[in-house]
């Protein structure tokens, strides 16, 4: 299946409702050299007098060389416009009497914009959040901060608080996900072999205690290997609220509508999104 080894199955319905969405921030920085010989400056580039221009989109930068906050960015966009004087080779910059300049602009990194995330209307989900100019030790610089909403996808990494980490093997449509006799569908399915190999007993206690806490509206102590939290006490509380004492339930296939053989452990557990995302790794 798609939850072999450490892989996980995620529900598309849960993701559409905002599960594990995060915002990625990146800061682009450029500075002007302290030497005045090259006359570096931030500006909108002129195709008639500027050499070495990239095969990119320069139309979004303003006269100050920066993109206005709130504007969306694509893969081929220039985010900081920077030029310097250029001269004849061997004669130095002072020989440049025509004032021709060379392009030293900064382009959006390809990893920040993913084609499949493109939205209707031409925006790729990456936008400028903040721009600023400054000076430090007689060196002028500018910064542009961008943001992008990251939606969970196949290959992203997640982990519980007990170190039960894994990557998404498949994002399954909500109507194909299994459900209990009460109609509850899981947001996440993991491989049961991950429990004995990593010996994350605390995750089992947290899942059962979380299930009980949802029914009673109380905070539950899930600290493993403590005198107050024992298997007997946790299973007793689960049975008192009407569940099977071990947290197992019968489930129905969302694809065939047939009842699965046996019972399945299902509970409430906190999972966290890690910084290891497929958009940053695939080029």
From TrEMBL:
Enzyme Commission number: 2.7.7.6
Entry's transmembrane regions: none
Molecular function GO terms recorded: DNA binding; DNA-directed RNA polymerase activity; ribonucleoside binding
DNA-directed RNA polymerase subunit 2 hybrid-binding domain location: 1-282
Record keyword Nucleotidyltransferase present: yes
GO biological process: DNA-templated transcription
Domain of life of the organism encoding this protein: Eukaryota
InterPro entries for this protein: DNA-dir_RNA_pol_su2, DNA-dir_RNAP_su2_dom, DNA-dir_RNAP_su2_hyb_sf, RNA_pol_bsu_CS, RNA_pol_RPB2_OB-fold
Keyword match Nucleotidyltransferase: yes
Short name of any one Pfam family annotated for the protein: RNA_pol_Rpb2_6
GO cellular component: DNA-directed RNA polymerase complex
Location of the region described as Disordered in the Swiss-Prot/TrEMBL record: 90-109
Top class in the EC scheme: transferase
Keywords, ordered alphabetically: DNA-directed RNA polymerase, Nucleotidyltransferase, Transcription, Transferase
Protein family per UniProt: Belongs to the RNA polymerase beta chain family.
Protein name: DNA-directed RNA polymerase
Organism in which the protein naturally occurs: Olpidium bornovanus
